[in-house]
Amino acid sequence: MRRLPSLLLVLLVLSSGCSGFLPWSDSGSTRDASTTTSAASLSPPPGANGQWIFDSERLISAHESALESQNYRVSVRIRPKQDVGSARWMKSTLVAHVGDGRVRIRESGDGVVMNDIGNPYRGYAWNDTAAWCLSGTEQCQSHSDGTTPSRLQRRIGTIAPRMQNILSSADFLAKGTTVRNGTRLYRYEASGSTSLKDVDALSATVLVDERGIIHDLSGTVQTTGTRSATVEFDYRYELVSNLPTSPKWMGDRPRLTVHRNATEITVEHHGGERIPAGTNVTLFLGNDTVGVSGDVTLLKSLGNGDVAHITITDIEDTNGHLSHAVGNATVNRPPSSEPGINHTEWTSSIDLRTEKWWVTVRNTTTSNESAP
């Protein structure tokens, strides 16, 4: 947190007696309706007051808490005017619709870094499952983690810390209020020096409602280094009434449920693309001391209503980090009479690929069934 310059603080205090409350007077035309409001009727957002944003961490915390119960759209756009050397300010666009644990998202640009996804991509997440496709291709993945939030949900969670990094890097001073769609927004502006890494100067405006929801944080930075550049940035949030819905491109996604007992793993198919005969199902099992992986082959295709029964009949020591699992798979009939190895105390997951879809279901008794 940066400290308000003492001389400016004195001027604000002296001026307040002459103009009602000078910082909240109209500061110029914008696309919203600006208002002049008495100090007595104001309720600045958490972490801010009638002079400046004094606690950006508190403001961002209020922003995230308020959005937990809301449906909203968020967009992030980073636009350098020249080639930029800093990875933090490379060209990128993120647009997402969020609500009730669901995320519908698309992202592209040089600055996109998504583990195991690629760029550009479009995705949809709900509960513990995420599905995504590389834009312009027929390569898609579906990933279910059992109990943890999906990587797309975690991606949304990275936006607020990036905004806090900007808000904490300079003194954002009060510059009036404005009304957008019937909601009063408090305007704060910063200009000049900044503590942002690889940045020489910052000019930015943030619009916040009294709950702390940041509706708009936009401006420019001047980066440093051998390839310095002027970069425009814009973070926008819009509250909406509707929930995200499953996109059409997910219609053929294989929908599977994986169950496990002491000696058998079952994979139930509930719709979507048929998994052809000859597909390898990769198994991963592990406990506190050892990890095991291996492939079994589906000798028959697996379609809607079918069940594959998988047993592990042997574990071979490979003298490495992972031991090798040997097993077999049957479709719509009990497994072979050969006894399976008991893996009650192990965690497990399966992994399979078709021509279009790569499906992963992790942990025990979990699914990637129909998306809402």
Structure write-up:
The chain has four helices and 21 strands. The protein has a 21-stranded mixed beta sheet. It has two domains: 6-130 and 149-240, outer membrane lipoprotein receptor (LolB), chain A (Clam); 251-367, Immunoglobulin-like, CATH 2.60.40. The chain is mainly β. The two termini are 42 Å apart. 35% of the residues are buried. It is 11% helix and 41% strand.
Key features?
2 domains; single chain; mainly beta; Immunoglobulin-like; 21-stranded mixed sheet; 21 strands; outer membrane lipoprotein receptor (LolB), chain A; 372 residues
Q: What is the fold named in CATH at topology level of the largest domain?
A: outer membrane lipoprotein receptor (LolB), chain A
Number of helices: 4
Order of helices and strands: HEHEEEEEEHHEEEEEEEEEEEEEE
- The low-confidence runs, each spanning 5 or more residues with pLDDT under 50, are 3-30
Span of the ends, CA to CA:
42 Å
Which CATH-level-2 architecture of the largest domain?
Clam
Number of structural domains: 2
How much of the sequence lies in strands comes to 35-45%
Please write the CATH class name of the largest domain: Mainly Beta
The SS-based structural class is mainly beta
For the sheet with most strands, the description reads: 21 strands, mixed
Instruction: Assign an overall shape.
Output: elongated
Beta-strand segment tally:
21
User: What is the overall pLDDT average?
Assistant: 83
Q: Work out the helicity level.
A: 10-25%
Rounded Rg: 27 Å
